[in-house]
Structure formats: C-alpha cells, structure tokens
Amino acid sequence: MKLKHIAQATLAAAGLMLVPLSAMATEVEVLHYWTSGGEAKSAAELKKLMEAKGVSWKDFAVAGGGGENAMTALKARVIAGSAPTAAQIKGPSIQEWGKEGVLANIDAAAKDGKWDASLPKVVSDVMKYKGHYVAVPVNVHRVNWLWVNPEVLKKAGATAPTNFDEFFVAADKIKKAGLIAIAHGGQPWQDATVFESVVLGTGGAAFYQKALVQLDSASLNSPTMIKAFDTLAKIKTYIDKDAAGRDWNLATAMVINGKAGMQFMGDWAKGEFSAAGKQPGKDYLCLPAPGTEKAFTFNIDSLAMFNVKGADQQKAQLTLANAVMSPEFQEVFNLNKGSIPARAGVSRAKFDSCALKSMDDMDATSKSGGLVPSMAHGMAIDSAKAGAIQDVVARFMNSTMTSQAAVQALVKAVKAK
After folding, report:
1. Are 298 and 144 in contact (CB under 8 A)?
2. Rounded to whole angstroms, what are the CA distances from 189 to 49, 67, 83, 88, 174?
3. Mapping DSSP to helix (H, G, I), strand (E, B) and coil, where does residue 39 land?
4. Which of 27, 97, 274, 370 is 20 to 30 A (C-alpha) from 404?
5. CA 403 to CA 223: how far, in whole Å?
C-alpha cells in the first residue's frame, strides 16, 4: 500500500474530503459503505447506541464500487493527516494498514468486553495486528451455501444433495424436467465463489487451507485440485447460456421464481428470499455446498480503528468498539444483513433456521478446524494473489481450458504475484 507512494491524483480526486473537520471532544467519525436498505438501517442503530452513550456520530458513508470508493477516500484522508475514528476494512487489508502504523491499539476495549472469550480464535486473529486488537468484527457471512428451490426438486423427482455425486444426479433430473439446474451469474467473483466451495467440497478444510490460504505449491499442483477443476467443468454444463454478466441477485431470483433449482452463493442471498416473502425450510432450502457440511468459509465485515489524538477521542473510540461488539448491536445488524453475529452470547430468538444452522456450524467448525477464510471474498490472501486466482478461474469457466492446464496456470499465477 505504502501511503507515501500514492499519487497526488488520489488526493485531488477526494476533493473536499481532505479538509480536516473540527470534531467534538466526544465524537466518532465512521467511514463505511453500508448504504443499501438493511445495511443503512444497521448503521443508524449503531449511531443511536453511541448517542445513548453520550458520543456524537459523524457519518462518512461512501457508496459504490463494492468498497473501492470508500478505500480511495480513506487513503486520501489518512495521507492528509485526518483519518476517521474508524473505517470499514476487512481481512488481510487490516494487516496492510497495520504495517503503515496508522491503526490504534484497542486492547483496552477487548479486555473490558472479554473479546477473546467471545470470539473464535480464527476470527479474533483477523482483528489483530502483531497480537494487538486494531479492529472489531461486525458480523460473519457464511459463503459455502447452496440455495435450493424444493418445488423444483419435487417437479424433477430429485432430492436435496449432500455431496457432489448426489448434486449431479439432482442436476440431471432438473435439466431433464426442462428447468435450469444451476442459477449463476458469469462474473469473475461469482465464478470464484463457486470454485472455492468446490475446492472445499472436494478436498476438505485442511486441503482448502493449504491450497487457497497458504498457497502451498504441492497442494495447488495436485490431483485433488485437478479433481476440483473437473467438478467445476461439469458444473458449467448445467448453467444456462445467458449467464454471462448476470448479477448474483438476478440468479437468486431464478431460484426464487422456480426457473432454476440451485445456486452457490453466500448468505446475503437470503435477503433476496426474505424480501420476496419466502420462508426457509418451506419455500427454499439453505444447505452447505456439496461435501462441505463439516466446514465453513467465512467473510467478515469489520471496523478498523485509526490513531486519534486526545484522551476524550480515544475513550470515544473504545466506546465505539465495545458498542459494535455488544450483543444488542450484533443482533440488530445481523437480522438486517442476513449474516450472523461474530461473537458468542447473542440471543438466537429472532434468527431464522438458516441463521441458526450457520451459528451452530460456525461453533462446531471453530472447534474442529473446519472454519476457514473465504478466498473469493478477500479474507484469505492479499488482493493481488486473490485476483490472480480469480482470473484463472474465470478463464476456465469461459473457455475449453483443461483441468490440467488450469492447475498449471494457477501455480504460475500465484508465483507471479
């Protein structure tokens, strides 16, 4: 990242955002990109919580670009010496900002809130830089879900799959019934989302960790990875010809409307089913992707804390950190977002069956070693290497590339970055 090397053009592009704004003694400024319906409601709840604690909230919401616009604005602000109190950052990016020496040590909040006892170690490790808390988790998304329309299964005489053999039997029956077996959007990140679930379902959590987190050459260049690409090649044959460029929510709508039987997608898809008035277990099924029952790929939204001056500002920052980790906020945010609380101890009463399954599986996999970071969603490796893998997968999905050639391209791409 190296902030001092960012071009002055970045500063100019950020315009008025460079001007440091005078802050109240007990004010927090939060840069985020929670701007859609449910997310915006959740941010408003956090604002209410802070104001109830006597801390003023300055909203710095930056829409668009999947967070890229927000990161541009953040870099400009940090360069100008006017970093916000907190910013929505996740995964390895937290470590990159930590290396710049601009993140605040919030161990005091973590100690006060007993975070180590409330968070799975895999999650708390992501929130730390050199052993100290510098960020706070807001939620956990499970990525390795398969969304299924049970009415489509019934029409096709198929049953819900638990492994890839059963998955392809069901897909064949759905196809023979004249329906689309797999709803998919032909966009690189969606291809990568399917790919990582296939790798997980083919090789298991330990293999996934070696191949897509540690980027172990022997694992990347292995018969298991070839088998994963073979499975992905077969999945391609059940995707309709109009998938290119389709947005994920439109693919979800195909499952909702009974045009397609199944979709690989993270739990944000549940928001689409809920908005359509559909009930889990009745109108749709949320199943672990084939072969991944004992594993859980996570994607975590979090707020990283930046260095602030003055005892009052630092105290307000710690208040913000513990407000985010409070069971009260974790409940309301995740009910709106479709995800689950990052911490233990949140009431389960208002969560639906899909969320409860996710909570139980996260708890079980955090103990078994099956809880692993999502490569496709920026939690496992740096963005350059993740992009290189995504490019190979997208090429494979859109060509006649063989599995062997894909594996060789994968090894080469990772080494080059």
Report:
1. no
2. 35, 14, 30, 20, 25
3. helix
4. 370
5. 10
CA 302 to CA 381: how far, in whole Å? Answer: 16
pLDDT for residue 67: 79
Higher pLDDT, 24 or 312: 312
- pLDDT by residue (tens digit) across 255-264? 999 999 999 9
Average pLDDT over residues 41-52: 90
Long-range contacts of 361-367 (CB under 8 A, 24+ apart): 361/142, 361/288, 361/296, 362/120, 362/140, 362/142, 362/296, 362/298, 363/120, 364/294, 365/205, 365/294, 365/295, 365/296, 366/120, 366/121, 366/122, 366/123
pTM to 2 decimal places = 0.85
- Residue 66 is classified by DSSP as G
Whether residue 23 contacts residue 7, with contact meaning beta carbons closer than 8 Å, is answered with no
Residue 390 carries which side chain, given as an amino acid letter?
A: Q
For residues 41 and 43, what is the distance between their CA atoms, to the nearest angstrom?
6
Residue 348, Cβ neighbours under 10 Å: how many?
12
- Counting every residue written for the chain, the total comes to 417
Residue 209 token pair: 């960790």
- Going by the DSSP 8-state scheme, the letter that residue 58 receives in this structure is E
3-state secondary structure of 406: helix
pLDDT at 102 over 60: yes
Cβ(354)–Cβ(267) under 8 Å? yes
The answer, yes or no, to whether residue 68 has pLDDT greater than 90, is: no
- For 224-235, give one letter per residue: b (16+ CB within 10 A) or e: bbbbbbbbbbeb
Amino acid at 49: L
Give the tokens for residue 337. 């977002």
- CB 341 within 8 Å of CB 327: yes
Helices (H) then strands (E): counts for the chain: 19, 14
What phi, psi does 133 have (nearest 5°)?
Answer: -65, 130
Q: Which residues contact 184 (CB under 8 A, 6 or more apart)?
A: 190, 194, 239, 243, 246, 251, 263, 264
Cβ atoms within 10 Å of 387's Cβ, excluding its own: 14
Paired residues of 140 in beta bridges: 340
Amino acid in the structure at residue 347: S
Q: What is the pLDDT of residues 119-149, one digit of tens each?
A: 989 899 999 999 999 999 999 999 999 999 9
Q: 44 vs 305, which has greater pLDDT?
A: 305
CB atoms within 10 A of CB 68: 11
- Is residue 146 within 8 Å of 290, Cβ to Cβ? yes
